[in-house]
Amino acid sequence: MTSRGTARPNGQPQASKICQFKLVLLGESAVGKSSLVLRFVKGQFHEYQESTIGAAFLTQSVCLDDTTVKFEIWDTAGQERYHSLAPMYYRGAQAAIVVYDITNQEAQAYADDNSLLFMETSAKTAMNVNDLFLAIAKKLPKSEPQNMGGTAGRSRGVDLHEQSQQNKSQCCSN
């Protein structure tokens, strides 16, 4: 393994740059949002996960070469009674993961039509969970180090409103 960072005393490479991004999980109730996050952050899976009330907040980092990508993860509740709170949680997010029941295969077609990253995961078996967050980290812009404070990167965000065709061709081309 090669790294452009300097080595820490324990032999692990030290990232020269730290980027912090807000990431939200969206989806209906009981589709596995919390399970996916718990598998990524803590490496755990609970067969009977309690429903999230409002939202849960967790952090986890991914190392890419000389950059550490720190995710501020907001796991939103999927129940209908919390839908009015959702915009408050995803405001200013740089990435969103839409979690859905795998029997709904319209998601693949939608992702293809809109040039979105699409990956099937399993929180239960851990299939593609780390790969998903790593793929997101690779796609996020890392041109300048992010402030480690709670408002890092808030000037850029996920625009959940429909964009004009001209904007779509300039965005997300990789």
Automatic annotation (TrEMBL):
Highest taxon above the source species: Eukaryota
Skewed-composition ranges (Low complexity): 163-174
Sorted UniProt keywords: GTP-binding, Nucleotide-binding
GO terms for MF: G protein activity; GDP binding; GTP binding; GTP-dependent protein binding
A single GO cellular-component term on record: endosome
PROSITE patterns: RAB, RAS
Family matches, as Pfam families: Ras
Residue ranges of the region described as Disordered: 144-174
GO biological process: antigen processing and presentation; endocytosis; endosomal transport; endosome organization; plasma membrane to endosome transport; regulation of endocytosis
Keyword flag GTP-binding: yes
NCBIfam families in the record: small_GTP (TIGR00231)
UniProt record similarity statement: Belongs to the small GTPase superfamily. Rab family.
Name this protein carries in UniProt: RAB5B, member RAS onco family
Organism of derivation: Sarcophilus harrisii
Gene from which the chain derives: RAB5B
